[in-house]
Amino acid sequence: MNRIAAGEVIERPAAAVKELVENALDAGAKRVAIRIERGGLGLISIEDDGGGIPRDELPLAVERHATSKLVAETNGDVDLLNIYTMGFRGEALPSIGAVARLSIVSKARGSNDTWSVEVEGGALHPVRPSAWAALSEHGTRVEVRDLFFATPARLKFMKSERAEMMAVSDVVKRLAMARPDVAFLLEHDGRANLRLSAETDPENEGRRARLAAILGADFAPNCILLDQTRDTVRLSGFAGLPTFHRGTREHQHLFVNGRPVKDKLVVGAVRAAYQDLLARDRHPVAALFLDLPAGDVDVNVHPAKTEVRFRDAALVRGLIVGALSHALAGAGHRASTTTAQSALGAVRAYETPQPFLRPAMQNWALAEERAAAGDFMMPSGRVETMHSPGFANGMAPADLEAAIQVATRQDPEDARFFPLGAARAQIHETYIVAQTEDGIVIVDQHAAHERLVYERMKQMLANGGVRRQALLIPEVVELDPSEAEALAARAEELGQLGLVIEPFGPGAILVRETPALLGHIDAAGMLKDLADDIAELGEAHALKERLEEVCSSMACRGSVRAGRRLTGDEMNALLRQMEATPFSGQCNHGRPTYVELKLSDIEKLFGRR
């Protein structure tokens, strides 16, 4: 039976590491050392400074379904609804002992003696005294050797040692993110792969530092703080700026009451919050921490405890979407610093060869002669003032005029007042160069104005609703009865988005009106997409995304194009509008709208620092 349980709980070395480290954390450990050999198939050693295991409890620790982590009520029943520990099933140690050579050495807090017990292929050896040389005066060391030696068939399904070690590292990193107050050491074949010291402030800057140590140094300056509470549920953590993204969802982490879990509800919620800020194939980086009463979440739905079930999933999803949307809006025009780093990385200082230098000097001398003769003026560094029609095709004239007035009331020579600085030049009739207090900003005029127009169109949709067009002949769409029922239940929500539907018998939906923005649409195809969204994510994303795609396309066509010359006032007005508009740091496709270069970085390029 233990070998059957091992197949469910311990399917690879990473699963064994997860269970053993969770045991260490439940024991109150503040330092955990993990040593791995041959990807975990040769040796897994977990050593902690927790409370330890008393001598009389060591044999029980390796008995199946025996656990000290569930508290009995006054009537003798065990409360399985309010679970506060990481492990509670009592399956990990006996499962590991059934398929490997397991040894436990422990010294309980307050005890003068150290005891050990061994299990080999399910055979329990007697408890005996042992020596203790560990992290502290008390704690536990668990060693697992020759994993799956008792079940050779399972060894055939193991991947390479490198792949297994990467899985172990991923598990340890997730647990370390959840507990910044605990120090972690991970070694593989004698080399340290991960070394994390305990953080003194596990809630704020300490958590940010721990996340940056695991997710990368770029995460800390490119994330925004989350901390919101709704009813009895609190969401905290950090989420990356829209311009700080990755190609997969592997960098999105959820922790429920300190437990790393994976949940499709969170995937849908994060997607909803970033839906018009990123391209479809890009994903934000986030570490979200949910804290709620233990009775409101079921952690006992998976043998490996990697999935949970919320009592009020709608509340949790709404909190995640709302908190992310609010935080992203508060970030304003802020963009990722990695764009500037990429730009600096592309710049190289060249030693100019002499044959190239001579023509350049000759041309400059010729230019000086022509300037002296009055043929043309030398560049002054000032913004070229050119008359052109207003740049805001997609903006109200009053708003454009107001923005220009705001820009012209300030002294354009003083860039200290503006986060995005004062415009100094337009390059290739595409990019605006602005001087800030401590550097320069380069703005893609088309991408920036595209976001401004798009945000205005979104606001118009939110204030006036979506215009609808009635079908001359209502269309009947045949669906699966469960899909039709789910859509009918969302009829009011879909009506606000311009799609008017009603039930039409079992397994059928009648479409009466569609969003005017979408023009002629395939009603059957859209309803099927909406039904899939509701089944997978609990919300009808497809219609919202279609409407936003149309708005994005219209904003793109109605924005300042590359190659358009702008006056100095128009350029400064665009900068001021960006500073006042949420999400203006990226265009509708997720690309950055501007790059900021600090003066110190520029000085490094020229060897001044």
Short précis:
This protein is of the alpha+beta class. It has 19 helices and 25 strands.
Helix and strand layout, with pairings?
Elements: H1 2-9, H2 13-26, E1 31-37, E2 43-48, H3 58-61, H4 92-99, E3 101-107, E4 115-120, E5 123-124, E6 128-129, E7 139-145, H5 152-155, H6 161-178, E8 183-188, E9 191-196, H7 205-215, E10 223-230, E11 233-240, E12 245-246, E13 252-256, E14 259-261, H8 264-273, E15 283-284, E16 286-291, E17 297-298, E18 309-310, H9 313-330, H10 338-346, H11 354-372, H12 397-409, E19 422-427, E20 431-436, E21 439-444, H13 445-464, E22 468-478, H14 481-489, H15 491-496, E23 500-503, E24 508-515, H16 523-537, H17 541-557, H18 568-580, E25 594-598, H19 599-605
Residue windows where pLDDT falls under 50 for at least 5 positions: 1-8, 348-368, 374-398
Radius of gyration: 31 Å
Shape: globular
The helix count comes to 19
Specify the biggest β-sheet: 9 strands, mixed
**What name does the CATH topology of the largest domain carry?**
formyl-coa transferase, domain 3
Strand content: 15-25%
Overall mean pLDDT = 77
Instruction: Give the end-to-end Cα distance, rounded to a whole number of Å.
Output: 68 Å
Structural class: alpha+beta
Percent range for helical residues?
25-40%
What's the level 1 CATH class of the largest domain? Alpha Beta
Name the quaternary structure: single chain
| CATH-scheme architecture of the largest domain | 2-Layer Sandwich
Instruction: Give me the CATH superfamily of the largest domain.
Output: MutL, C-terminal domain, dimerisation subdomain
Q: Care to count the β-strands?
A: 25
- Structural domain count: 3
